[in-house]
Amino acid sequence: MSEPTASQTKGAQSLHRAMQLLAAVGEHNVTGIRLTELAAATGLHVATAHRLLSALVREQMVAFDVHYTKRYFLGLRLHSLVDLARYSAVRARLRDFLAAIVVETGAIAYLYVPLLNDTIALDVVEYPRAPRGLVSEIGRRLPMGVGAGSIALLAAMPDARARALVAANAPRYEEFSGLSEAAVWRSIEDARATGHGITLEQVARGYIGVGLAIRNDRGEPEAALTVVGTLKRMTPPHVETCVAVMRRYIDQLGPIDLATRPPRT
Q1: Which of 35, 127, 166, 193 is paired with 56 by a 20 to 30 Å CA distance?
Q2: pLDDT for 134
Q3: 145 touches 196 (CB < 8 A)
Q4: Residue 125 and residue 256: Cα distance in Å, rounded?
Q5: Taking the CA of residue 255 as centre, how many other CA atoms within 13 Å lie in the half-sphere pointing to its CB?
Q6: For the range 89-92, what are the long-range contacts, defined as Cβ-Cβ under 8 Å and sequence gap of 24 or more?
Q7: Which CATH number is associated with domain 6-74?
Q8: Most confident of the following: 13-27, 71-85, 153-167, 192-206
Q9: What pLDDT band is residue 264 in, cutting at 50, 70 and 90?
Q10: Domain spans of the chain, in order of start
Q11: Could you tell me which residues are beta bridge partners of residue 123?
């Protein structure tokens, strides 16, 4: 085995230092930690610590509260990775369901879970010859209110909670085909009337998404199934077929509970 090059050694050293910083941020995540404190805790020069932290912020592994506390916290992407690991059991449990739904509907099937103000793609099963670029990567985040599964989750929530989420995400909707807060609410109201969310060309041009919420044993929405197909294929009768297929599998699945809660007394 050849000796590592100088650039490889430097890269490994930078990675080691970044992991030191990440661990230190995690140890102080409740209150956050300042740059000078991180430098002291890791033995790094302040400039080196700042350079590495800036890279971690760009990758969303660390978050910096620039407006108020000037402290560093663990970032949203890291939380997403943790949640993907935490949900691995339910992902494995639903994998066969997603595959079966794809066979019956001829559509791409997704499993989404809510995370803070967003939904995160926990799993996806595509049909053969699915268009390249349409299939979202596992771990992709979308603002709550974007996508049919998200609409189904909001429709199943208490009204006050749904309104708070939609209001918080309103400035982000414009990025998705000019979506508006009012349009999101119309979709939620439709979903409450029909029992399923539906979106038209919201995330990808030429495609329709249909979503249903999966509830826990208290009736609260815990996750959502979504199927996505082309406008040509997703005619109103086929949408009804997709809804019936997803509902059948959700009924077979029964309640799921993704949260870690203390035992009931």
Answers
A1: 166
A2: 56
A3: no
A4: 20
A5: 8
A6: 90/122, 90/223, 90/256, 90/258, 91/122, 91/123
A7: 1.10.10.10
A8: 153-167
A9: very low
A10: 6-74, 83-253
A11: 111
